[in-house]
Each structure stands twice: as structure tokens, then as C-alpha cells.
Amino acid sequence: MDDDPDRNNQNYGLRITLPENDPFAALVGEDWTAEHWFASERERDQALADMAQEHIYSRRGDRPALVFTPIDRIASGR
User: Whole-prediction pTM value?
Assistant: First the structure.
């Protein structure tokens, strides 16, 4: 059980995974995932928009090669 009250109030998340056959999986493993949690859907959706866009240090036309899936603790029972 997580006793951190701030974390317990973060019910809206993003699960980040690699696309199928991504060469980066050779470094981090085929089952690599990361999760980021937010206090509101709006915060999560803004973070998703920020993460999915071209970054200022990217080469022109590059897009993040990650899969972003919105999740929430209430529906997943976490």
C-alpha cells in the first residue's frame, strides 16, 4: 500500500510502452513500461499532448517512438 497522500490522489495516468519491433527494446527489454500519474484528467491530457509532440531538440520531422496509453487507478483498481 502506498502511504503517500499526494500519490494516492493521483488517479489519472499514462502508461508508456515501446512499439512492436522497436530496436530500443534490445537495450531496455521487450516488456519495458513506464507510468506517470497526475491528479486530474486535464493534467494527464496536457502531459500526453506535450510528450507526443515534436521536441525542440528533435530533428525536423522526428516523432517520439513511444506508445502513450491513458490509464486510471479507479478503472484499473490500483
Answer: 0.72
